[in-house]
Design brief:
about 675 residues, alpha+beta, Neurolysin, domain 3, 4 domains, five-stranded mixed sheet, 9 strands
Length: about 675
């Protein structure tokens, strides 16, 4: 049987890919890619764009596709044999990609092409690709000594292995715990949706009672609503010390990852990992990122303190970490007469998707249609095609939004295929949206929280950045952009979850079809910035920790990385943290890939500042202004990394970003 991983296929045969296909396919593709690389180096033809830069991009296409498919399956439908096969090939693939810029012949050919007459006359996008390729080669060790190159290669392979293990430990630790409540009286305070989900979870496991897990919908419901403080404490402690002990302990993995990242940066001539990865991002340096985070923290502190004093007074006792969400929800309900659970009936999953598609249609003149011809990895996965106004197939995507035990936590977007120019336009893109939302229960449709609705819109924004891309160079297309820019297209989409004009398109009661009543909508809007300083301080804590780990932490001096992290996060916490608090051992944003959001977590707040400012144009010109939507599409969504982010922002807004926009939106401006 033909191996389903050895050719790039738009209709990815997810239903046929098995663990036993992985190693033979990757070995074959590595051999093919190496042969192409050898031919490129041995070529005596004068270097041109096509036989050098384009050839480099082309020779890894099939290998990248196969690893993307296998890595995706390991995230959403893992099993022991697949995990073992993935872990086996990861180091070999990492070594191959690391060796490309270390190859003297390849580096010479790239430099030789950069000096040609053709190189001087390249289109702006191709010129940017050339400049970035030269820069990436240098930052990947092309000019190191032989011993330096050998060490860098070793570091890259070790980072791949360690970060893969980190992510797998978090998944296993999340699944290792559950809690069953046998007496219905122990469910006091929980909304009916959470009770039904817990009952069905128990039934699937063949146990009686109500089962709760550390997966987001279950965990958040307990922490926000359950009256039983002892159960809340148990769940909180288990969640906050995932992958912190035993065979799944990630603390040593973190220390090794940080040491390797620092060694890599210094080997390449940078002071630390932050300066290495931020040089070509909007912040440019670790110092500038720290300045940004510290300034926001300073301007948030007073409101943060007021909010916490207020909650302490409301609770009439010294609050513990597992009390915060619970008491905050009670205070919000008292102050605004608003319970987010009242919104659930208006957000049935299918209705939210239809509304999202209609919002995208009105903004960007695209149409989204369901597909039934693309095989998927699970029966719950749906597929959709996105067409332009003239019927052109721009791309398709898979929607996998509900939790499973063989799927990692969180929400994300992945690209599987990036389209490219053809004789008749662009070939279509292929992507994925994943999440872990409240599943359907009790014979009812999946009824989502408003925050889950925001999550769907957020990840779809990333997807649009990929599927609407019109960049002639694949490596600069879609979401292949600076990470303090990549969140702008996703975060701006969340704004339509708060606009009445948009909500009326999809926020309909799943039984009656009625829109959200004015009274409930007004309560929701009034409560929007409730404890916004705490929400911001939490994100700033993560950003501060990230930068401290990648610019300051030295294990020989600072000791235990978990204790170091806890000390920093304590300064951003509304309550004292337990001594065994070890959130950092499950911080997948930082440690689940060789780079990831390492030294870049500040990007969420940076991009949120850009989004808050950019949305002011929609607010001024109309949230469904066709002209504004088209401008955002042409200036930002279609442009990928074809120009500097600040240039793209100016193209849309006509000016530099306003840093005050975020504070004004959160109600924190002085």
């Amino acid at each position: 049987m033909t191996n389903p991983l050895t050719e790039v296929q738009f209709e990815v045969p997810f239903d046929r890919v098995r663990a036993e296909h992985v190693e033979p396919a990757i070995d074959q593709l590595l051999e093919e890619a190496q042969s192409s690389l050898d031919s490129l180096v041995a070529s005596e033809a004068p270097p041109t764009y096509d036989n050098t830069l384009a050839a480099l991009e082309k020779l890894v296409e099939k290998l990248e596709f196969a690893m993307g498919v296998v890595g995706h399956l390991e995230s959403v439908a893992t099993y022991p044999e697949l995990r073992a096969a993935f872990n086996e090939v990861q180091p070999r693939v990492s070594a191959f990609f690391s060796r490309i810029p270390l190859n003297e012949g390849v580096w010479k050919r790239v430099k030789d092409f950069s000096r040609t007459k053709e190189a001087r006359k390249l289109s702006p996008t191709r010129k940017r690709f050339l400049d970035k390729t030269v820069d990436d080669f240098r930052k990947s060790g092309a000019e190191l000594s032989p011993s330096g190159k050998a060490r860098l290669l070793q570091i890259n392979v070790e980072l791949t292995t360690l970060t893969t293990k980190f992510a797998q430990n978090v998944l296993d630790a999340t699944n290792a715990f559950d809690l069953t409540i046998g007496d219905k009286r122990g469910l006091a305070g929980l909304p009916q949706t959470a009770i039904e989900a817990a009952r069905e979870s128990a039934q699937r496991k063949g146990v009686s009672g109500w089962r709760f897990t550390l997966q987001a919908p279950s965990f958040l419901a307990v922490m926000t609503y359950l009256d039983d403080e002892q159960v809340r404490e148990k769940m909180y402690r288990e969640f906050s010390r995932r992958a912190a002990s035993g065979r799944l302990d990630n603390s040593e993995n973190i220390a090794k990852i940080l040491a390797l990242r620092k060694e890599k940066a210094q080997l390449l001539g940078f002071a630390d990992f932050a300066d290495l990865v931020l040089e070509d991002r909007m912040a440019k340096s670790g110092a500038r990122a720290r300045e940004f985070v510290q300034d926001l923290r300073k301007r948030t502190q007073a409101a943060f303190d007021r909010e916490n004093e207020e909650l302490e007074g409301f609770g009439r006792s010294r609050l513990q970490p597992w009390d915060i969400a619970y008491q905050a929800e009670k205070l919000r309900k008292e102050r605004y007469d608003f319970d987010e659970e009242d919104l659930r009936p208006y957000f049935p999953y299918e209705g939210v998707l239809r509304g999202l598609f209609e919002v995208a249609h009105r903004l960007f003149r695209i149409r989204i249609k369901k597909r039934v011809d693309l095989p998927a990895w699970d029966a719950s996965v749906n597929t959709y095609a996105i067409e332009d106004a003239d019927g052109t197939h721009l791309g398709s995507y898979y929607a996998d939004y509900f939790p499973r035990e063989n799927k990692r936590d969180g929400a994300w977007m992945d690209s599987l295929i990036t389209g490219e120019p053809t004789a008749i336009g662009f070939s279509p893109h292929l992507g994925v949206n994943c999440g872990n939302l409240t599943p359907p229960t009790g014979g009812k449709p999946a009824l989502l929280t408003h925050r889950e609705v925001e999550t769907i819109f957020h990840e779809f924004g990333h997807l649009l950045h990929h599927l609407l891309s019109r960049v002639e160079v694949k490596s600069l297309a879609g979401t292949n952009v600076a990470w303090d820019w990549v969140e702008l297209p996703s975060q701006i989409m969340e704004n339509w979850c708060w606009e009445r004009e948009a909500l009326d398109l999809f926020a309909r009661h799943y039984e009656s079809g009625d829109p959200i009543p004015d009274e409930l909508f007004n309560k929701m809007r009034r409560a929007k910035n409730f404890r916004s300083a705490n929400a911001q301080m939490r994100q700033l804590g993560f950003g501060t920790l990230d930068l401290a780990l990648h610019t300051q932490f030295v294990q020989e001096r600072d000791g235990d990385v978990v204790a170091f992290a806890r000390k920093i996060l304590q300064r951003h916490s509304p309550t004292p943290l337990p001594e065994d608090y070890s959130m950092v051992t499950a911080f997948t944003h930082l440690f689940a890939s060789p780079v990831g959001y390492g030294a870049g977590y500040y990007s969420y707040k940076w991009s949120e500042m850009l989004d808050a400012d950019a949305f002011t144009r929609f607010a001024r010109e109309g949230v469904f202004s066709a002209e504004t939507g088209d401008s955002f599409r042409r200036s930002i969504l279609e442009r990928g990394n074809s120009a500097e982010p600040d240039e793209l922002f100016r193209a849309f807004m006509g000016r530099e970003p306003d840093p005050e926009a975020l504070l004004r939106r959160l109600g924190l401006a002085a």
